[in-house]
């Protein structure tokens, strides 16, 4: 009798953990182009400066999720990661916003920022490069 109760309880727990919602594909992520980036004229080694980026959300289904920031040697690749709601009707209004992030100059070499600008007709990524010297 204990084994049957234990088995029934185990099946109940297993069933309750199943995802019965069919909303698994209702959200996605997309990289958005940076409209404009404002960087300092130079960095001072060991100090922190602010970089401001401006971006546009294409419609009401898009929301800022996080900043994509990849470090490769002296290069920094920067893009906006947006959360996209795929299951709703969306407002068609373009929403423009900005985001500030801090950069601490912890290298003595110049920083090369590559700001994502979108893709070309061949699907290749386009970047705007900005070099910020370090004093």
Give a written overview of the molecule.
The structure is a single chain. With 135 residues, the protein is mostly beta strands. Helices cover 12% and strands 52% of the residues.
Question: What's the SSE pattern?
Answer: HEEEEEEEE
Report the radius of gyration as a whole number of Å: 23 Å
What would the principal axes of the Cα set say about the shape? elongated
- The overall pLDDT, averaged over residues, is 90
Kindly give the count of domains: 1
Low-confidence stretches: none
The secondary structure category is mainly beta
Number of helices: 1
Number of strands: 8
The fraction of residues assigned to DSSP E strands is over 45%
Distance between the termini: 78 Å
Q: Would you spell out the secondary-structure blueprint of this structure?
A:
Elements: H1 2-17, E1 27-32, E2 34-38, E3 48-57, E4 62-72, E5 75-85, E6 95-104, E7 111-119, E8 125-132
Parallel strand pairs: 5-7
Antiparallel strand pairs: 1-5, 2-3, 3-6, 4-5, 7-8
Short description:
This protein has one domain.
What labels would you give this structure?
three-stranded antiparallel sheet; five-stranded mixed sheet; elongated; mainly beta; 1 helix; 135 residues
